[in-house]
Amino acid sequence: RLQLLERARAFVDGLLQLGGVATLEELVPVVYADTPVALHALARYSLLAHLQKLVEERRVAQDGERWAWLAA
Q1: How far is CA 5 from the centre of its chain?
Q2: CA distances from 38 to 14, 27, 28 (A)
Q3: Assign residue 54 a region: left if phi > 0, alpha if psi is -120 to 50, beta otherwise?
Q4: In this predicted structure, what is the pLDDT of residue 11?
Q5: Is 32 exposed, middle or buried (0-12, 13-18, 19+ CB in 10 A)?
Q6: pLDDT truncated to tens, each residue of the chain (72 aa)?
Q7: Fewest beta carbons less than 10 Å away: which of 7, 38, 39, 47?
């Protein structure tokens, strides 16, 4: 469970590191820097699911292919 919380924090931290707005392609290498590049295509799906959860929580907004941090 702790590892999942750390990964969730990495999603938000990655988005903030990129200025609060980014595409999945920009986010994956930042959020999954500790993951082999060969697995980044799979990691993209995990990131997408988490971003969609953050949209439901109204912490992130999606505009086309870009995701923007909304929460303070």
Answers
A1: 13
A2: 19, 15, 12
A3: alpha
A4: 84
A5: buried
A6: 557 667 778 888 999 999 999 999 999 999 999 899 999 999 999 999 989 988 998 989 999 999 999 976
A7: 38
